[in-house]
Amino acid sequence: MIEIDGAVGEGGGAVLRTALALGAVSQRPIHIYNIRAKRARPGLQPQHLRGVEGLAKLTNARVEGAKLNSTELTFEPTIIEGGRYHIDIGTAGSTTLVLQILMPAAAFARKPVEVEIRGGTDNPMAPPIDFLKNVTLPTLRKMGYRGEVECVQRGHYPKGGGVVRAHIEPIEKLHALTLTEPGKVVRISGLAHCVRLPDHIATRMAHVASMALVKAGYSKVHIKTESYPPTQDPHLGPGAGITLWAETEGGAILGSSSLGKLGKPAEQVGREAAESLIAQLKTGCAVDRHLTDQLVPYLALAEGVSEITSAELTSHTLTNIALVEQILGVKFEVQGQQGQPGRIRVKGLGLHPERPVKA
Predict the structure, then answer these.
(1) Which of 84, 113, 102 shows the shortest CA–CA distance to 21?
(2) Integer angstrom CA distances of residue 232 from 109, 227, 228, 235, 236
(3) Residues 305/324, Cβ–Cβ less than 8 Å
């Protein structure tokens, strides 16, 4: 049984997700305590609880402590079966964070995994669905991951109501990833959306972001807009946001996003996303700050030596690395300081579904 202190690092839900995801894929039992100890509302909230329950079904796990507000949990996975699953968070909690806990194990299931998740699709402090679709998954596919995600309907705080569907095919192993020299930017794409709001909000976000990127020297910029006529808008509540992603000659995809909120001008939303992307591209690194921490578990599971350069080593990234080292026994080489650009190198396990990691 691996003992995990949920208060390590940022002490939030990421510790829970990473620990259980790695325990599931390596078939090692996990005991985690002090869950979300550093958050204003510690313990399992609906989003986290639904993720735990979904992973338990996927891995036929025995679970103790899976209840609302619980600060301690024991998770003992067995067979990653696969199949069809439906998860309703019941709030505007993030659907993409629920997917984060499921995705590693789903890749090593006995049969394809299809899951529908209801909740929020564009949340503060979580990857928006457009980032997962256009940055995370295309990068994971370079490692041999086989997954697709579809946003059926958006959901924003506080009403939620979003619907996301994912399809993940089993793989034999993950391949090592080298993303260190991005090269020149080939194109920048994006999607600005608004629901239950006038369509000019999406247009304004896209326009300001485009102008900022062109001014910074990026000529090939194409940002789509998504909005709905008032009489044909199926969403439960208003919301807006923009996601941008830059593709480079070296095969890198770097992303950024910004979320609207009441009283925040559309122009500010678009400018924030553009300035974030520009700043990260200027570092000359091949992986953006948010994708870095998402990649860490997959790099450790892959066969061979992976190496990436990151636009920023966040506390999330460094916490993830510490957890992965503890659970899987691999050793990361990290150059750089928290909050600064850095380089990450690791020799992965080469995990195979028939050769799980044993305690």
Answers:
(1) 102
(2) 39, 10, 6, 9, 12
(3) no
Q: Is 31 a residue of the active site?
A: no
pLDDT at 356: 55
Q: Give the C-alpha distances (Å, rounded to integers) separating 293 from 196, 287, 302, 319.
A: 33, 10, 15, 9
Rounded distance, CA 249 to CA 78, Å? 42
**Rounded Cα–Cα distance for residues 136 and 44 (Å):** 26
What span, in angstroms and rounded, lies between the C-alpha atoms of 35 and 355?
30
- Note the pLDDT of residue 116: 98
Q: Which domains does the chain have, with CATH numbers?
A: 2-178+287-349 (3.65.10.20), 181-282 (3.30.360.20)
Of 156, 207, 316, 352, catalytic: 316
Dihedral, CA of residue 132, residue 134, residue 139 and residue 143, to nearest 10: 80
Q: What is the band of 359 on the pLDDT scale with cuts at 50, 70, 90?
A: very low
Q: Which of 3-12, 101-110, 152-161, 173-182 has the lowest mean pLDDT?
A: 3-12
